[in-house]
């Protein structure tokens, strides 16, 4: 098993960061504009990515497995790229220095540390910068306006 | 053991990317301005980081363990934060789509996937964006002008 983990600090109360990672409108503001579905516990969220021509480039489904207000969100991936199915995406929030909320982001349980995981690791880092931008300034950079990092996306 | 791996594409020939990751002047242009030492095989590179007041905040030593022109650089960390000692930092270059050189970056062999590793993973991602910026535009964002990502740095 292999894991992606990232740590970022966001200058805002945990409640605001939590809203951005636990609601459909929140996630649509930093990851992918086309976030749909049910964000309540047990519900399924749909994260859809489109190419420039409007065609669907990728779609992931995440079952909301844990919700601890102000503290933790966990999604279990139930559909999407084969490498993603069965993995867990987590956001753990805590109080850091300088009035920052610390987010420990995890995308855990990859079967292999393959090249696609390296792509996703880099891509997640840029989406976490987008999350920070959303919470701190009100405007993130979700797909399809996301920062392209390589020849895959 | 736990690994950090990231994938990034840089619109430039592999020779230019290789120069940026295998020479003192190259690394000083995207990771830390204060990069010193010997970049030949078996030599030791010193990567020094200073706080705003000029004091040394951190310093890592890497022995140049592999050098394959245009293809691979590997440093074995011999000094620095305890978690870093004995780990390997690698840059594997290959030809990607759209005239891009693909860099698979690795920082492998962490004893534990602890919070400090999550910090370094996020930080490495921003330094790889700095590397891309350096190679594509001539100007990276090395420490101490690096993007701060949390309450640690």
Record keyword descriptors for this entry:
homodimer, 153 residues, alpha+beta, seven-stranded antiparallel β-sheet, 39% strand, globular
Descriptive notes:
The structure is a homodimer of 153-residue chains. Chain A has 153 residues and is of the alpha+beta class. Helix content of chain A is 24%, strand content 39%. The first copy, chain A, has a 7-stranded antiparallel beta sheet. The two termini of chain A are 24 Å apart. The mean pLDDT of chain A is 97. At the A-B interface, strand 1, strand 7 and helix 3 of A face strand 1, strand 7 and helix 3 of B.
What is this structure's SSE topology?
2 copies of one chain form a homodimer.
Chain A: E1 2-10, H1 14-22, H2 24-28, E2 34-37, E3 44-50, E4 56-68, E5 72-79, E6 88-95, E7 101-110, H3 115-137
Antiparallel strand pairs in A: 1-7, 2-3, 3-4, 4-5, 5-6, 6-7
Helix pairs in contact in A: 1-3
SS-derived structural category of chain A: alpha+beta
Spans of chain A of at least 5 consecutive residues whose pLDDT stays below 50 are: none
Radius of gyration of chain A: 14 Å
Per DSSP, the total helix count of chain A is: 3
Q: Which pair of chains has the greatest number of interface residues, and how are they split between the two chains?
A: A-B, 31 and 31 residues
Strand content of chain A: 35-45%
Count of beta strands of chain A: 7
In one word, what is the shape of chain A? Answer: globular
Mean pLDDT of chain A: 97
> In angstroms, what separates the terminal alpha carbons of chain A?
24 Å
Q: Please estimate the helix content of chain A.
A: 10-25%
Oligomer: homodimer
Order of helices and strands of chain A: EHHEEEEEEH
Instruction: Give a quick account of the main beta sheet of chain A: strands, pairing sense, barrel closure.
Output: 7 strands, antiparallel
Query: Order of strands across the widest beta sheet of chain A?
Result: 1-7-6-5-4-3-2
């Amino acid at each position: 098993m292999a894991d992606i983990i990232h740590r970022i600090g966001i200058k805002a109360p945990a409640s605001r960061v939590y809203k951005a990672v636990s609601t459909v409108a929140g996630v649509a503001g930093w990851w992918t504009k086309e976030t749909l579905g049910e964000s309540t516990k047990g519900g399924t969220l749909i994260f859809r990515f489109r190419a420039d021509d409007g065609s669907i480039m990728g779609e992931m489904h995440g079952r909301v497995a844990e919700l601890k207000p102000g503290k933790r969100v966990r999604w279990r991936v139930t559909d999407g790229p084969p490498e993603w199915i069965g993995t867990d995406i987590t956001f753990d929030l805590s109080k850091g220095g300088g009035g920052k909320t610390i987010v420990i982001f995890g995308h855990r349980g990859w079967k292999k540390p393959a090249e696609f995981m390296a792509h996703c690791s880099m891509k997640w880092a840029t989406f976490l910068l987008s999350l920070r931008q959303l919470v701190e300034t009100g405007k993130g950079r979700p797909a399809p306006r996301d920062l392209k990092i390589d020849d895959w996306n």
